[in-house]
Amino acid sequence: MKSNFYIPGLVLAIIFIGCDGTSDTASKIKIGCAAPLTGDQATIGIDMCNGVELAILQANDLAAQMTPGATGIEFAISRQDDQHNPAQAVNVAKKFVSEPAVLAVVGHFNSSCTKPSSAVYNEAGLVQITPASTNPELSKQGFATFFRTAATDDVQGPKGAVFAVKKLGIKKIYVIDDKTTYGKGLADEFEKEARKLGAEILGHEGITQGDKDFTPLLTKVKPLAPDLIYYGGIYPEGALLLRQARSLDVKAAFMGGDGIATPVFIKLATPEIAEGTYATMVGGDMHQVPAAASFIRDYEAKFGVLGQWSAYGFDSANVLIQSIQKAATQDRPAVLKSIREIPKFQGITGDIVFDAKGDNQNQFIGIFQVKNGKLAYIGSAE
Amino acid sequence: MTPFDVFFQQLVNGLTIGMIYALIALGYTMVYGIAQLINFAHGEVFMVGAYLGLFFYTVLNHTVLASWILIPTFVATMIATAALGYLIERLAYRPLRDAPRLAPLIVAIGISFLLQNAVMLIAGPSDKSFPSILEIKKYTFSHVTITNLQILITVVSLMLMMALHFFVKHTRTGKAMRALADDRQAASLMGIDVNFVIAVAFVIGSALAGAGGLMFGAYYSTINFHDGYLAGMKAFTAAVLGGIGNIPGAMVGGVLLGVFEGLAAGYLSSQWKNVFAFLILILILLFRPTGLFGARVVKKV
Questions:
Q1: Which residues in chain A are closer than 8 Å to B226, comparing Cβ atoms?
Q2: B192-231 burial, b if ≥16 CB within 10 A, otherwise e?
Q3: Which of A56, A147, A200, B38 has CB 3.0 to 4.6 Å from A129, enough for a Cys bridge?
Q4: Are the beta carbons of A179 and B271 separated by less than 8 Å?
């Protein structure tokens, strides 16, 4: 029985330590950034949060240049790692909700993480913008706090199919996905449109994230002799899938979504093997957008090579910064009201206009192809 | 490709990964046979082996050894993982030798997390690309493709297994290992140094896992700090399939599991691949807990 006395004391001690930790940073307004920051998808997540951090640094610099005490709201980023694990994503969301200084969140990256966490944000009235989760179901949950800047899979998948069937003249397709909300959603939308356009779908199979050996599936695919293998999923499995396909002499072209449109995919698959791979991507080539030139310069000076999601993270954070600055009071309900009142935000990825569901009306999809070991922008998808 | 070619190709692929499962399974089975301990950190030793293999390969590639790089890389990796295995045994398991069996099991899980996170912090969280350790050549026999890497993996695995078999059957230490597996108390009464023999089992098991890790990295060309978990669980399944504690059983169990998994994924459904593998674990534990080759334990009255 003696030990029972320790527990309330310990709890109190933790509470006091907790209060101490937050009180000195409470003057700053925090914008959360939730993404996989460790693990196999860390590269994409860090790229995204770097974009958010750059937006915050620039806003603080601007505020510092103005006369002190004017509208000098100081922002800070709070990066949280959801490990692309839905359960961890909910923990991260609860952490943001419980911290009063967090007025808005950029995140999450994976659709499977955004889905459960969006319910937590909605309950707390905390505004969330996902720059990267592309699953169409996310905005159909009726959450007022949900916004996204990325184009959705029901646009990306079909646009990829139109490109494959009409532009490349592909007739026989084998579809593979990684069974995640994102991967399966994208692959299903691709398949639907490809069928409609008259392509023959030889099969549609799933693989498991984290697995390494896809040769059993590819050995089954080989005698079917598809013209194209379409993969809905993320780059670690995508790169292995492509390598193993080539080592089994499967000659089909390879195409995927934004999950494989990253330099890491090329590195893991090796440039020789990745050569010729097609990928659809939310957004175009930032290097070809004049308005983004200063963003790229600042980003590369601070963080190194620009990632595929950095610009979307940057734009999402800027929308939030503007909403917070224009809000009547610096609290969550006012920010939610304020973000709805922005008619049009001119971002570097294009104009951002939210519809009633929180989706961006500007749904831009670019087509990329690996050429000479680099992702080359072919053009916008029709 | 005829259906027969497809079947044969699946067999070749399954055999290759099965060899690696078998190498890891040996570590599980030897340690269990001798110390009655399931070393769940063993999968992590395998993963560390893959990283060390990459490290030694990169370092040695810039030395005079570059033209014969494979042998020194294998040797260095195996020595390093053997040392790691010894450290784990000495620091974590030996102090708990007489503790209840649950304690070392929980320590094993702790070491597993420790190694995963240490590798993540040292080597970084993202996938590492593994260079081609030899120039890939493909041999095609009526549409069935076999690469020289697959042949290398099979040959090296078989050689290591034969060496282990010889060691256990024909050396003094091997004899001591068998004696310890039969009856630890009697063996120690006969003057066998129990701690030494258990350490040897850890060292050999870890060296084999290191070789397995190196070949796994080379075969799949990317490695990640959490690769040890799934591979370790599969190898554990293989060890149980062959009869845990039984060395030839682990070899056969590994190969069987690799082939079965490949065939099930290829002919039934690839998204259920891991389910099939672990279904075997459940079925074996339910209906034949001693495994395919495990001797039935005679209960003492």
A1: 39-40, 210
A2: bebeebbbbbbbbbbbbbbbbbbbbbbbbbbbbbbbbbbb
A3: A147
A4: yes
Q: What is the residue range of B201's domain?
A: 3-287
Token digits for B102? 């649950």
Token readout for A299 is: 């980003």
Cβ within 8 Å, pair A208-B274: yes
Tell which CATH architecture fits domain A154-282+366-380. Answer: 3-Layer(aba) Sandwich (3.40)
Which residue of A lies nearest to B6 if distances are taken between CA atoms? A219
pLDDT digits (tens, 9 = 90+) for A209-238: 888 999 999 999 999 999 999 999 999 999
Look up residue A268 and give its two tokens. 């893991």
CB–CB of A236 and B222 under 8 A? yes
Q: Number of residue pairs across A and B with CB atoms under 8 Å?
A: 103
Residue B66 confidence class, pLDDT cut points 50, 70, 90: low
Q: Which of B24, B116, B127 to mutate to test the interface with A (most CBs of A within 10 A)?
A: B127
Instruction: Find which of A213, A220, A221 to mutate to test the B interface (most B CBs within 10 Å of its CB).
Output: A213
Task: Give the SS3 label for residue A172.
Answer: strand
The alpha carbon of residue B45 is apart from the nearest alpha carbon of chain A, in Å, by 18
Domain ranges of chain A: 2-150+288-348, 154-282+366-380
Strand order in the sheet with A102-107: A75-81, A29-35, A102-107, A127-130, A146-148
| Residue B297 belongs to some domain of the structure | no
Work out how many domains chain B is built from and give that number.
Answer: 1
**Residue B51, pLDDT above cutoff 90:** yes
The shortest CB-CB distance from A207 to any of B120, B262, B271 is to: B271
Chain A residue numbers with beta carbons less than 8 Å from the beta carbon of B10 are 216, 219
> How far A260 CA lies from chain B's nearest CA (Å)?
14
* Integer Cα distance of B149 and B44 in angstroms: 23
Give pLDDT tens digits for B182-215. 888 899 999 999 999 999 999 999 999 999 999 9
Beta-carbon separation of A42 and B126 below 8 A: yes
Q: What amino acid occupies position A204?
A: H
Report the distance separating Cα B52 and Cα B214, nearest Å: 8
Q: Do B6 and A219 touch (CB under 8 A)?
A: yes
The DSSP output letter for A165 is I
* B-interface mutation test, from A176, A208, A212, A229, most B Cβ less than 10 A away: A212
Nearest to A49 by CA among A81, A79, A75, A92: A79
pLDDT of res. B127: 86
CATH number at residue B47: 1.10.3470
CATH superfamily of A2-150+288-348: Response regulator (3.40.50.2300)
The first and second tokens of residue A118, run together, are 């969006």
Q: Is residue B296 part of a domain?
A: no
Would the CB atoms of B6 and A236 count as touching at under 8 Å? Answer: no
pLDDT digits (tens, 9 = 90+) for A291-337: 899 999 999 999 998 888 899 999 999 999 999 998 988 899 999 99
Burial of residue A125, with CB atoms counted within 10 A of its CB: 0-12 exposed, 13-18 middle, 19 or more buried? middle
